[in-house]
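Deliverable D5.2: sample structural annotation.
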Amino acid sequence: MVSINAVSNAKIYYTANGSTPATSASLYTGPINVSSTKMLNTIVVVSGQSPSAPGSARYTIIPGNQQKNQIKLATAQVVTTTTAYL
């Protein structure tokens, strides 16, 4: 599962197909199940501001292993950290 955190008034949009996310992408509402190798791309949007630069992380599934991967997305006022425990 991949959990994403952001400031409380931010919306996080993501894609899992390698494409760059926009506000038309999936809206993050809870942990994302990652059961196979996947590239997650995210943006953070706060009302009245431009979207953040895209962030991405590739999650590789290794049976019997627990991996931790973090990505950080930052704008002048928004910092997001994503952590995956596989």
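Annotation notes: DSSP finds no helices and seven strands in the chain. The radius of gyration is 13 Å.
The annotation will be released with the project's public dataset once the embargo ends.
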